Amino acid sequence: MERRRRLSWLFVALTIVRRIVIVVLGVWLVFYLTRYLPDRGYGDPSIQELVDSGQAQAYSLNAHLLIDQDKFTVKKMVISPEHVYLIYSLKKAEPGWSFPGNSIKLVDDQGRELTYSGGSSSGKVWGESGIQTYNRTEGEIKELTLQYEWFDRRASMRLLSIEEGAHE
Fold first, then answer.
1. How confident is the model at residue 92 (pLDDT cuts 50, 70, 90)?
2. How far apart are CA 56 and CA 59, in angstroms?
3. Within 13 Å, how many C-alpha atoms sit on residue 32's CB side?
4. CB 119 within 8 A of CB 103
5. Is 160:59 a contact under the CB 8 Å cutoff?
6. pLDDT, tens digit, 9 for 90 and up, residues 22-46
7. Between 80 and 94, whose confidence is greater?
8. Which residues make Cβ contacts (< 8 Å) with residue 166, sequence separation at least 6?
9. Which residues pair with 167 in a beta bridge?
């Protein structure tokens, strides 16, 4: 009789431990999977601060450029007094290659190329998302054109005309 009582307490204790482990792993899984959701916002708190404080102008673009079978999307552009930030996503048709950030050039309405100063990206299940940073040229930016150039591949698209708006 006493042996049965000990076994039943052991069974109850193991059931409680098992349920706690399941709940903890379930919560961990939810947080882990949120890394693979599409990014929202600007992707960088410092860019968010610039926009919130009024030091930078943000533009929602959602402009698409096909690179072979891959889809490069400029989600947003943020123009601050010192930099232009290009917030993008890349949906890859075939995995296995990494996107060369320096293949994207920004050219203003006077034909001056903005200097690429760096970027960051993070891999996602569907491709990648990232931020490209460019140093501003002197004077006012009225229009920007994106030029993609990588070996024998070339593409171009007009991204932004300040007069047209799209300002957030």
1. confident
2. 10
3. 6
4. no
5. yes
6. 999 999 988 777 666 655 667 777 8
7. 80
8. 59, 60, 61, 160
9. 59
